[in-house]
Amino acid sequence: MTAVGHFDLSRYSILMLMGLAAPNELAWAARTTAIGDWRMAVTEEAATDQAGTVAFLTRQAGAAPMQTHISWLFLGPDMVWKLKKAVRLPFLDFTSLEARHHFCDRELALNAPAAPGLYRDVVPIVCRGDGTLGFGGAGEIVDWVVRMARVPPDDFLDVRAASSGLPPSLLDQIADAVAAWHMSLPPVPGVRPDMEAITRGNVASAIEAALPDPEVTAWRDAMLAWLTAHAAWRAARAAAGFVRRCHGDLHLGNLCLWRGRPVLFDALEFDEALATIDVAYDLAFLLMDLEHRVDRPAANRVLNRYVARTGDADLAGGLPGFLSMRAMVRAHVEARSGHADRVDTYLADAARFLSPPAPIMIAIGGLPGTGKTTVARAVAPRLGAAPGALVLRSDEIRKRQHDVEPERRLPPSAYTEEKSTAVFRELASLANLAARGGHAVIADATFMDPAHRSMIETAARQANVPFIGIWLTAPRDVLEQRIGARTGDASDATVDVLRSAARNDPGPGAWRAIDATDATAARDAVLALAKRNA
After folding, report:
1. 168 and 139 share one domain
2. I need a labelling partner for 292 at 20 to 30 A (CA). Which of 124, 242, 319, 417 fits?
């Protein structure tokens, strides 16, 4: 694992032992029943061989190293050197010099594209003719290190979440970073991740960690049943290219601010099988971590921004099982780490995620400025399966269809009747897909055209889920004030657009009109309707 100069970096070692920053979680769960005792094989010869390297790097850093169970981390003023320990574990073997070189190179190759400049290079430690050690040059290579930049402690996102929270703008940037990373990865054809094996490994780990046997057994049965029920969905995802060589350990502790923007680091480098997974399973760790470290609205915001950028609404169908798996991993890691007060929450969530509420589809329409997105985002975390409803926003779909970020303004030519029809067709298609997968959906658009309303109503009917059509209203001066105050938003509507639309206001029709002058009251009214229609 890589701390990259964190927290004085001592936090990273502590978190590893706590199980809060362990990229090997899946490996422990899938490959060994001896999870949590941190047993390792270190040959006497290997330990002796590395003693000189440790002493050399300690002098370079000017301080003793921090440690994880598989690495030493040496913190210089502006540089971090990471030395892999010559250890053998059930899921990795770093005892040979060749293996340590290989995995240093692999770590750099995996992480450098996501965090340019953060990971610098891999350099050999050589023994020179006079017996001294140095970086590169003539001499016998005795070990290899990864060199990284040092990052200020407060720029690690788990630290920032705990100290000052994660504002919506930063949550959007986090989702953008993960989405861009996932979209950059090539599909891995012919691979179907063995989630059943990971389930069995989790069960063995949970029992060894002394989690209550009845709860673990019940979870195992429910998880295996969910995997069976979703076998066709998982196969279709693999065939569609969603299985990729992912990060593998995507939680807040492995995200930091680098050059002002969130980046992923410390991808799992030592086991290709454990990191070759559905992107939805990769994302699920981050969503589960956000829900626990921050709150559900934060997790919901990241989910919806990720889908806005990728268009992958289908992933919602896998969230119950994928979130549950991540929660069970965390439950037994916490138990082994002596944090009994945290175990019950994760264990309960592992069961709860597998019993999601029934899906519902809500369409929220209205003139520009009525607060459709504000109300949708307020309702979503409180509706449906974790981490809340999928908000499908026509403005974001339009931007994705034009291959620009949501906040980039589009010219009037992007708003022709033909192009708007394409937007609403995709909106209806994605809403139907997510609802059929068992996830609640909120469709956020003007819905001024009766044909557009018909599309979303048909999507709900074909998915066989309850449907509620909402038409938001507010005084004209309120609408103009809201539009005038917008910054950094996906909507391109101006006050002139509002005035033009108002001349053709279709009204609620068969949908339910709700006054959205007070956004909180509108939120509560929508939730009350949803509860009555559940």
Report:
1. no
2. 242
Each residue of 334-349: b (16+ CB within 10 Å) or e? bbbbeeeebbeebbeb
User: Given 306, 334, 353, which residue is the final one in a domain?
Assistant: 353
Alpha helices in 62-167 (DSSP H): 97-111, 157-163
Q: Model's pTM, two decimal places? A: 0.90
Q: Among 488, 486, 465, 476, which Cα is nearest to 517's?
A: 476
**Separate counts of helices (H) and strands (E) for the chain:** 21, 17
Q: Which residues, 6 or more positions from 205, have their beta carbon under 8 angstroms from its beta carbon?
A: 28, 29, 32, 33, 35, 36, 329, 332
pLDDT tens for the chain, 534 residues: list them: 344 444 333 223 223 322 333 333 333 233 222 222 333 444 444 556 799 999 999 999 999 999 888 999 999 999 999 999 999 987 789 999 999 999 999 999 999 999 999 999 999 999 999 999 999 999 999 999 999 999 998 999 999 999 989 999 999 999 999 999 999 999 999 999 999 999 999 999 999 999 999 999 999 999 999 999 999 999 999 999 999 999 999 999 999 999 999 999 999 998 898 899 999 999 999 999 999 999 999 999 999 999 999 999 999 999 999 999 999 999 998 998 888 889 999 999 999 999 999 999 999 999 999 999 999 999 999 999 999 999 999 999 999 999 999 999 999 999 999 999 999 999 999 999 999 999 999 999 999 999 999 999 999 999 999 999 999 999 999 999 999 999 999 999 999 999 999 999 999 999 999 999 999 999 999 999 999 987
Alpha helices in 382-416 (DSSP H): 394-401
The b/e string for 23-47 (b: 16+ C-beta within 10 A; e otherwise) is bbbbbbbbbbeebbeeeeeeeeebe
Query: Which neighbouring-strand residues pair with 83?
Result: 72, 145
Strand locations in 422-511 (E): 441-444, 467-473
For residue 64, give the 3-state DSSP assignment.
coil
**CA-based nearest residue to 484, from 497, 498, 494, 469:** 494
What does DSSP say about strands 441-444 and 361-366: parallel, antiparallel, or unpaired? parallel
The total number of structural domains that make up the chain: 3
| Residue 3 is assigned to a structural domain of this protein | no
Domain containing residue 250? 157-353
Cis peptide, bond prior to residue 356, ω within 30 of zero: no
> For the chain, how are helix, strand and coil distributed in percent, rounded to 5?
55, 15, 30
